[in-house]
Amino acid sequence: MNVRTTSLTPPAGAIAPVRHPDAPAPGELLGAHYDQCFGCGEAQPHGLHLATRAGEGVSVTARFTVKAAHQGAPGLAHGGVLAAALDETMGALGWLLRVIAVTGRLETDFVRPVPVDTDLYLDAHVVAVRGRKIYSTATGRIGGPDGPVAVRADALFIEVKVDHFIANGRPEEINAALSDPDQVKVARAFEVNP
Ligand SMILES: CCCCCCCCCC(=O)SCCNC(=O)CCNC(=O)[C@H](O)C(C)(C)COP(=O)(O)OP(=O)(O)OC[C@H]1O[C@@H](n2cnc3c(N)ncnc32)[C@H](O)[C@@H]1OP(=O)(O)O
Questions:
Q1: What is the 3-state secondary structure (H, E, C) of 105-125?
Q2: pLDDT given at position 192
Q3: What's the distance, CA 23 to chain centroid?
Q4: 2 lines ligand 1 (CB under 6 A)
Q5: Which of 36, 68, 71, 91 is deepest in the core (most CB within 10 A)?
Q6: Does residue 2 register a pLDDT over 70?
Q7: Protein residue with its CA nearest to atom 47 in ligand 1
Q8: Is the model's pLDDT at 119 over the cut of 70?
């Protein structure tokens, strides 16, 4: 029987993450991996427009302003939107490892309500890597980068190749992305990983 562990604690044999030599410098603004992405895409009108920067080691920081369109309860951010912001922030860690990885598992703690118009200050880092499995953690604070924690999450990302998207994405968007030189450049940047 194939038993899949759901634990987000790195298993024995997991190793410390290694920052890729060509990773963006600390402080550098990371562009969107896809301009229509709900998390980071600048051309996505319904998106979070997360602005993410490379940090030291294998870490990133990001900022996201909660808009009226992100409400769950009156005047408060929807939990799923906050989880998406944490997910996207951890997804951006791929820029530092130079791998493409998708979320396999995400566990979120909602610690404080987050009102509309709040800036959420996010940070994330890779805890450990084992084969294709990348164990990451992220925190979202309010009131400033050192403010109280409002949300946090642990996640397991699984490394994939560009073929994962080509095989599974709707052809309309896949064909548009493959004919966009900027998008192809992003995919190549992720895939050059000695
Ligand atoms: C261009 C840059 C793109 C960056 C995107 C960032 C965006 C933000 C992040 C996202 O939201 S990604 C979108 C949400 N995620 C998905 O759509 C993923 C959907 N799931 C899948 O496509 C597949 O299940 C997956 C690619 C994750 C794994 O399938 P595979 O056939 O490649 O792997 P496999 O099932 O053989 O599992 C490989 C290992 O990972 C483990 N694993 C896979 N999925 C898991 C899971 N869900 N929970 C726990 N463990 C999991 C699995 O047990 C195994 O462990 P071991 O090597 O120790 O045996």
A1: EEEEEECCCCECCCEEEEEEE
A2: 56
A3: 16
A4: no
A5: 91
A6: no
A7: 104
A8: yes
Pocket test for ligand 1, best of 158, 162, 165, 190 (most atoms within 8 A of CB): 158
Distance between CA 93 and CA 39 in Å, rounded? 14
Q: What is the mean pLDDT of residues 139-164?
A: 97
Report helix, strand or coil for 160: strand
pLDDT of residue 194: 42
Query: Is the C-beta atom of 154 inside 6 A of ligand 1?
Result: no
Three-class DSSP category at 158: strand
Least confident of 3-12, 24-33, 68-77: 3-12
Domains of the chain: 29-191 (3.10.129.10)
Interface confidence (ipTM) of the complex: 0.96
CA distance 143 to 149: 9
Cβ(38) – ligand 1 distance below 6 Å? no
Q: Which atom of ligand 1 is nearest to the CA of 34?
A: 1
Please report the pLDDT score of residue 189 as a whole number.
Answer: 75
- DSSP 8-state symbol, 42: T
CB 121 within 8 Å of CB 127: no
Q: pTM of the entire structure?
A: 0.95
Nearest CA to ligand 1 atom 27: 104
